[in-house]
Design a protein that fits this description.
The structure holds two protein chains of two kinds. By secondary structure, chain A is an alpha/beta fold. Chain A folds into two domains: about 10-85 and about 160-280, Rossmann fold (3-Layer(aba) Sandwich); about 95-160, no CATH class. Helix content of chain A is about 40%, strand content about 20%. Chain A has a six-stranded mixed beta sheet, with helices on both faces. A four-stranded antiparallel beta sheet of chain A has the order 2-1-4-5, covered by helices on one side. By secondary structure, chain B is an all-alpha fold. Chain B has one domain. Helices cover about 80% and strands about 0% of the residues of chain B. Chain B has eleven helices and no strands. Chain B has helices at about 1-15, 20-25, 30-60, 65-80, 85-105, 115-150, 155-160, 165-205, 210-220, 220-250, 260-289. In chain B, α8 packs across α10. The chains are: A alpha/beta, B mainly alpha. The interface of A and B includes residues 88, 90, 98, 112 and 156 of A.
């Protein structure tokens, strides 16, 4: 069981690709031992932020502090040690395609511990049992459904008993029952093992079920940073629309902005096909 | 040339280039050098990056005890699974060499030297080069595609987050396997090719069997075998480095992204391996003999 708590502090952080910022001036604290949900519309930079938090991409400016240490200043060895206390669930699982499920989950244990084969196998099966996949250890990732791959990815992320678990869209692509079960699993992990969980999501139902702390991104900046209760009470028009799933008007502003005759949006393919046939 | 030297002199007097000078178009005399630089510098830069990539991979070969089983698995894939292809290519190359050399040598009544011809051409040149090219096609392309797919599907990122060095996990075992497999397969190619030469030269065309094997034994010196061995080692390093490098940096390619990037990387790696094998073969032949 993991005893120590780690928090994540982002200070004046700007992230982006090739020098072009995606989200700027991020100043948030993701508290230790809680579930923080990073929320926002599609393409607002949630997954980008998650990957930058784990140094998978270079940040443009600012600090990322995990457990008080600025990870951008850590040397290679210190960062390698800290990484063993972190787990990441990728959006599509990112399981190694050449290994069966059991070996995929056991891989971190094989690489970082000197446990015997039997113990490693038992631990991998136990973690897979936690996500309901104990009977699928022999299958390869391409033989599994998207949801199963995601659950297997979660088992792999948890196999080293991390102090912080990062999850990128954990419930997307899951059916409602599996989605709720995954929410329960995350809550159980938080309560039982006292770990910090950072979830990137735009699933409102899931967020309401698990979040202690919410960070909302939009317009290239942080729109909200606070508790779940504060978010529910917000009167900010954009946040309210997001939370209550209300579109501004019946016609989407994106459609209104199109410089085309609206009738062009519905192409009459049959007509074109007919004229093609006549030409033939 | 006068313009060039004048330009050089002005540069010597004024080491700092003014903004106006930078904005003015270069003189026509400098244009060939500029285009040569534009063409050559990225290639040199890529070669340098590949060399650093190779050094990094080598430095991680003995990084952990778990490297050994991975290297064994890769040796099985690169070495053992290539045996049948190498045997086939070696046999037919030897048969063709036996036939062609017999026809050429018999014109001068020198068909007794058939064994020398087959043995020297195989051991010094054809066996290392053809083995390397065959393994490039069979295993090199597979290495690039495998690592490239892992890159675009975030599997390499996943390894990094799990605290597993992707270079140590993916590239170093392949390097070990190539360095072990290439010389053994080259040796195997030599033996099969000499057998092929014997089949056509002796059994089909009637050259003397005893003379054939006597000439093989007599003409081959230590430096020939050592040279072929050295070549196979260099080719092993070239093929593994180029193939893995192209796969590992698939995501940085400008000529294609996603699956198209992987296909471009694979094609590029195979072409580059073949070119570098032939270029390094020429350089080593010039230096060794």
């Amino acid at each position: 069981m993991s005893g120590s708590k780690l928090d994540v502090v982002l200070k004046d952080l700007s992230i982006g690709y090739n020098g072009i910022p995606v989200v700027s001036d991020i100043n948030v604290t993701l508290p230790a031992g809680k579930i923080s949900v990073i929320l926002g519309g599609s393409g607002c930079g949630k997954s980008t932020l998650l990957k930058h938090m784990l140094k998978l991409h270079p940040v443009l400016a600012g600090e990322i502090r995990i457990g008080g240490k600025n990870i951008l200043e850590l040397n290679r060895h210190a960062w390698a040690c800290l990484k063993l206390r972190l787990g990441l669930l990728f959006q599509d699982g990112a399981l190694l395609g050449s290994l069966p499920l059991g070996d995929n989950v056991a891989l971190p244990l094989k690489e970082h511990t000197r446990l015997d084969k039997k113990t490693i196998q038992d631990m991998a099966v136990a973690k897979l049992a936690l996500v309901g996949l104990a009977n699928y250890t022999h299958l390869y990732p391409n033989q599994l459904s998207g949801g199963m791959r995601k659950r297997a990815g979660l088992a792999r992320a948890m196999v080293m008993d991390p102090d912080i678990l990062f999850c990128d869209e954990p419930t997307s692509g899951l059916d409602p029952i599996n989605s709720v079960e995954l929410d329960h699993l995350l809550l159980e992990l938080k309560d039982r093992f006292n770990i910090t969980i950072v979830v990137v999501s735009h699933d409102l139902a899931s967020m309401r079920a698990i979040a202690d702390h919410v960070v909302m991104l939009g317009d290239g900046r942080v729109l909200f940073d606070g508790s779940m209760q504060d978010l529910e009470k917000t009167t900010d028009p954009y946040l309210r629309r997001f939370l209550d799933r209300i579109a501004e008007e019946r016609t989407s502003p994106r459609l209104k902005a199109l410089p085309l005759d609206p009738s062009m949006l519905k192409l009459n393919c049959a007509k074109y096909m007919a004229s093609y046939g006549e030409r033939e | 040339m006068n313009r060039v030297s004048a330009h050089c002199r002005s540069r010597q007097k004024r080491p700092m280039i003014s903004k106006e000078e930078m904005q003015t178009p270069p003189s026509s005399a400098l244009r060939p050098f500029i285009s040569m630089g534009e063409w050559g510098l990225p290639i040199l830069s890529e070669m340098g990056a590949m060399f650093l990539f190779f050094l990094h991979a080598v430095s991680l070969i003995f990084s952990s005890i778990t490297q050994f089983p991975k290297a064994v698995r890769q040796t099985y894939f690169i070495g053992v699974k290539s045996i049948s292809v190498i045997a086939l290519i070696g046999l037919f190359t030897g048969m063709v060499m036996g036939m062609q050399l017999y026809f050429a040598l018999s014109l001068f009544g020198a068909d007794g030297f058939l064994g020398s011809g087959v043995a020297l051409s195989m051991v010094r040149e054809l066996a290392p080069v053809l083995t390397a090219i065959m393994i490039t096609g069979r295993a090199g392309s597979a290495m690039t595609a495998e690592i490239g797919v892992m890159r675009i599907s975030e599997q390499i990122d996943a390894l990094e987050i799990m605290g597993i060095n992707p270079m140590a996990y993916l590239v170093s075992p392949k390097m070990t396997a190539c360095v072990i497999s290439f010389p053994i397969l080259t040796c195997f190619f030599n033996l099969i090719a000499m057998f092929g030469g014997w089949l056509t030269g002796v059994k089909m065309l009637g050259a003397n069997e005893g003379v054939y094997f006597y000439r093989v034994q007599q003409s081959l010196g230590f430096e020939d075998i050592y040279g072929g061995f050295l070549k196979s080692l260099v080719f092993a390093v070239v093929v593994c480095t180029v193939s893995c490098y192209n796969g590992y940096f698939t995501h940085l390619r400008k000529d294609g992204v996603g699956p198209e990037g992987v296909s471009q990387a694979t094609t590029h790696a195979v072409v580059m391996c073949c070119v570098l094998i032939l270029v390094s073969d020429f350089i080593m032949t010039s230096l060794l003999w």
